[in-house]
Amino acid sequence: MSLPVYPVAHPDAGVQRQVLSDSPELMVVSFRFQTGAQGALHSHPHVQSTYVARGRFRFFRDGVAHDLHPGDSLVIPSGVVHGCECLEAGELIDCFTPRRDDFL
Q1: The Cupin type-2 domain covers which part of the protein (predicted)?
Q2: What is the DSSP string of 15-62?
Q3: What is the pLDDT of residues 47-82, one digit of tens each?
Q4: Which of these, 9, 7, 1, 48, lies nearest to 27 by C-alpha position?
Q5: Which structural domain, as residue segments, surrounds residue 35?
Q6: Which of 70, 76, 78 is nearest to 94 (CA)?
Q7: How many domains does the chain fold into?
Q8: Upstream peptide bond of 45 is cis (omega within 30 degrees of 0)
Q9: Which of 7, 35, 55, 68 has its CA 20 to 30 A from that of 84?
């Protein structure tokens, strides 16, 4: 049985998004950012965790800034306004529960 290969999407300037794996209960997604690229402020009903695989990011969660480096992680509760700015090109590995059907 072969696993699905998901296409790369470009949700914002300087940002690439690729679903790595999913089930109805959980989704794992890679976000690759160029320096200076931003993930616009938004909210969604999914619980999200983000892990910095490489690079440096400034996350905004519910109006509070958090500077994250490789190996750092952050949980974003359901409905909380959040976004990020890439300070040094890198990659985030995000998990969403339940799955983000809008990414498929």
Answers
A1: 31-88
A2: EEEEEEEEETTEEEEEEEE-TT-EEEEE--SSEEEEEEEEEEEEEEET
A3: 999 999 999 999 999 999 999 999 999 999 999 999
A4: 48
A5: 17-86
A6: 76
A7: 1
A8: no
A9: 7
